[in-house]
Amino acid sequence: MIASKKIVPDIKIIKKSGDSEQFDINKLVKSLLNSGVDYSDVEPILSNLYEDIDEGMTTEQLKKSIYNVLYEYEEEHGKSKYSEKYLYDNCLKIRTSGKEFEGFDKNKIAEALINEANADESVALKIANEVEKELKKMNVKYLTAPMIREVVNYKLIEHGLEDIRHQHTRLGIPVYDIDRLINHGSKDNANLMHNPESIHKWVADETMKEYALMKIFPKHIADLHMKGDIHLHDLEYAAVRTVCCQHDLRPFLMHGLKVDGTGRHTSVSKPAKNPEVAIQHAAKVLSASQCEMSGGQSIDEFNVWLAPYMRGLSYEEVKQLMQMFIYEMNQIYAARGGQVVFSTINLELEAPEFLKDKPAIKNGQIVGTYEEYDAEIKIIAEALTEVLMGGDAYGKPFLFPNVIFKLRENAFKNENYELLYKIHRLSAKWGLPYFINMTADYQVGNTNAMGCRTRLSGDWGNSVEEGTLRTGNMQWYTLNLPRIAYEAKGDDTRLFELLNERLHLVQDALLIKHSISEKRLYGDDESRAVLPFLTQEFDEDQYYRYDNTTKTFGFVGLNELLKYHMGEELHTSKDAVSFGEKVIGHIKGYADGLKKETGLRWTVTQTPAESTAGRFARLDHKYYKEQTESVVNGNLDDMGSIYYTNSSHVKVNSDVTLGEKVSIEEKFHPLCNGGHIGHFWNAEAYADPDVLMTITKKICDSNIGFWTYTKNLSICEACNKAMTGLKDNCSNCGSESVEKFSRITGYLQNVSNWNSAKQKELLDRKSNLPRL
């Protein structure tokens, strides 16, 4: 054996049993040679090692010192990986989350239990010792951190330490699920295409959803979500984002644009001088805010803010600018998960009363008041409508932004007729525009909406602007109404008791999200603020008016609640409609009471329920099979296809006229002050713009607050032929390569991206518009 030129340390090493033994240089040299260390390198390695060996070291400490010396030696001399081979041969090896190998140390288990799960030191050491014994029995080449954590959690369960296990558990996603997402994608959100970015988003989403259910929400609330009593939307974002915002361009047109909110990580723009730059800034505001929020982004009063930039331009120049904006919003393919921004713009036919005398902004300066720009406001709306009419280069409709027109008292006067007629031509061709009925009794000053139907009204705060601009929905969570009916078993009193219980639980969940959101916005002793775009200041005024955001109760399946509880549906019985009003009115009353109690903005919304309507139906069929079989919609032989009717809508395949549908659904719009929508299915019909104009005027005499005319479309991929209705073959070239489009909830999208329940609903929809 080699004899080191340095004096061999005369020390004792403590074994795992607690006994001591004399340090043996020969054992060490043999171990080094067995680990592949070149004979010529043994001497210098030993010389370095002697400096680290002390009396009373444990065998584990000695092995760690040997590993460190080997690692440093090979790094310095460019040798082969001695250290990694030594780990394999002499230690319990762990592949860490840092993608490196290190020796097993049971003390790290104890430290993790103490630091992560607040375990008592004696308990932590006991678990660590037992885990070490278990791991030594395993015949594995190397350990991983997740594997060790699983063994630790098993021991915690074995000892009845469930609370500690809950805090210590590791979040992740099974290999099988990742394979499935890579190869097949997900259809929970039809706006997400299957691409590398969406795959990464879906994988990350699953982990963040687990985190929310394990860490953000208490077990009883998480369990109710898992069972389907309630639905906690956007769980993947519960810890980091609020939902949506209605933007005001004036701060950016006055002060310039910092898309990161600070100017430290991106370039900073001065206020836009030219209309082209103003348009680009509008698109970038929506994109930047999408990075910090989970839901849609909207610019309210879009054509009002941009009107000063259009003065002096020809109609064709304005049209070119609108085309640029539309293409920006449909081609900035960089929002979460590789998608375009879920965007909306709200437009006026003329300057609204609440803005007429407000300073108009251009290039950081005041250029009169907005009432001076009525002509430009109309030109923008008309040019935008004409751009949307044309479709893209392949003849497809533009899917974003959702375009909403506000119809105020002057909407049907002669000066607005031509513009309103063009908007209805757009409805007849593509079914794109949405309308807000500002003449309904419950509307106040200003109302805006998004394609997802979230709504803000001017009846909150100190002014119309505070209530509707630079704020939005913090979050909505949804009640499963049919399940309440199943559990009430026909008893009215019990039904409202259960409704109160669920409302209280959703209230608690929303308050938790409210507290979490404040931490993300402003930080605290434990966490940093992470939403700088929203919290940037203009003239010492924070951009995002968080105090004015809505905390919202959503609901699904009122029609099925009535069907089970009363044996009647919304379209079959006035008594059912009246009882439905009582149910939703109760939710509204609960929300109004919370406003007074908490000072927060509580509202009620018709949940879009793109995936929730199907999820609730499937879970109810699992737990309440006998009750659901006569209630759910869809095909019971295909569980993926069953669904509940969205919110308080009339069932999509009911035989009702347009007037009957309006008379039923208008009763719920004033109650759903956080969001509502009327879907009027145009289906195969190519409606006459004049007919649609007449319908729109009649709807404006009702309490329907927000609606759209939905039309099914097919586009041939071979010859780009656009066709009305859902076609399997092209009427022009006969190709079977046909893309089908319809409105899934609050936005138009390719039907192939829809989940099975929504595809079945699409087939069930009956037109309630006049046919030609």
Topology:
Blueprint: E1 12-14, E2 20-22, H1 25-34, H2 39-50, H3 59-77, H4 82-90, E3 93-95, E4 101-103, H5 106-117, H6 121-137, E5 143-144, H7 145-158, H8 162-168, H9 175-184, H10 196-216, H11 219-227, E6 230-232, E7 245-247, H12 250-255, E8 257-258, E9 268-269, H13 275-290, E10 297-299, H14 302-310, H15 315-331, E11 343-347, E12 359-362, E13 365-369, H16 374-390, E14 402-407, H17 414-430, E15 434-437, E16 447-449, E17 455-457, H18 464-468, E18 473-480, H19 481-488, H20 492-522, H21 532-535, E19 537-538, E20 541-542, E21 550-556, H22 558-566, H23 574-598, E22 601-606, H24 612-623, H25 625-628, H26 658-665, E23 678-683, H27 689-699, E24 706-711, E25 713-716, E26 722-724, E27 738-743, E28 748-750, H28 756-764
Parallel strand pairs: 3-5, 7-10, 10-11, 11-14, 14-15, 18-21, 21-22, 23-24
Antiparallel strand pairs: 1-2, 3-4, 6-18, 8-9, 12-13, 15-24, 16-17, 19-20, 25-26, 25-27, 27-28
Mean pLDDT reading: 89
Distance between the termini: 101 Å
Strand content: 5-15%
Described by the principal axes of the CA atoms, the overall outline is globular
Helix content: 40-55%
**What's the CATH C level of the domain at 217-242 and 472-663?**
Alpha Beta
Which strand order does the major sheet show? 7-10-11-14-15-24-23
Query: Count the helices. How many?
Result: 28
Keywords: ATP-binding, Nucleotide-binding, Oxidoreductase
Pfam families: ATP-cone, NRDD
Domain ATP-cone: 11-103
Protein name: Anaerobic ribonucleoside-triphosphate reductase
